[in-house]
């Protein structure tokens, strides 16, 4: 049973941002510090990737573990109330993410997903970004 009534829960869930989240901001700052320059949330690309590196034809998604169902992550827990709704919601999110990656690859873009729980480890993110993007030409 939820501790909030439906209206309060709806209001709280509606305040969750999709852009400029804390994990995304951490990844953006780190990519910039590494010398990579990028565009944000290109709506003309499938899935509106969080970071777009047009010259390299590479994109980075910063996914929240809960919303995008990071496999095996403790943050991707299952809500105890309204289970059918959440199961359908999460399945749709995962299917949408997979479709975006496939569509991007078909258009010649290389993709990387950085999970919310990984964003806390700046060394890990730096190594993953560097491996995905190659050496920065700006440094």
UniProtKB/TrEMBL annotation:
For this UniProt record, the keywords arranged alphabetically read as follows: DNA damage, DNA repair, Endonuclease, Hydrolase, Nuclease
Checking Pfam families in the record gives: Vsr
User: Could you state one GO biological process linked to this protein?
Assistant: mismatch repair
Q: Does the keyword DNA damage apply?
A: yes
The family database entries (InterPro entries) matched by this protein are listed as: DNA_mismatch_endonuc_vsr, Restrct_endonuc-II-like
The organism named in the record is Methylobacterium gregans
Provide the top EC class. hydrolase
The record's section on CDD domains has: Vsr (cd00221)
Instruction: List where this protein forms a coiled coil.
Output: none
Q: Which domain of life is it from?
A: Bacteria
- What's the protein here called? Very short patch repair endonuclease
């Amino acid at each position: 049973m939820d501790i909030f009534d439906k209206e309060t829960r709806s209001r709280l869930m509606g305040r969750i941002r999709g852009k400029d989240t804390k994990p995304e901001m951490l990844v953006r700052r780190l990519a910039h510090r590494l010398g990579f320059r990028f565009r944000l949330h290109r709506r003309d690309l499938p899935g509106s990737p969080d970071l777009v590196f047009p010259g390299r034809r590479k994109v980075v998604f910063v996914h929240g573990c809960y919303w995008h169902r990071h496999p095996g992550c403790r943050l991707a827990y299952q809500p105890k109330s309204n289970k059918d709704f959440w199961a359908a919601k999460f399945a749709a999110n995962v299917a949408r993410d997979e479709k975006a990656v496939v569509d991007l690859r078909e258009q010649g873009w290389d993709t990387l997903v950085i999970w919310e729980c990984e964003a806390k480890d700046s060394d890990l993110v730096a190594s993953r970004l560097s491996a995905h993007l190659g050496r920065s030409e700006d440094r």
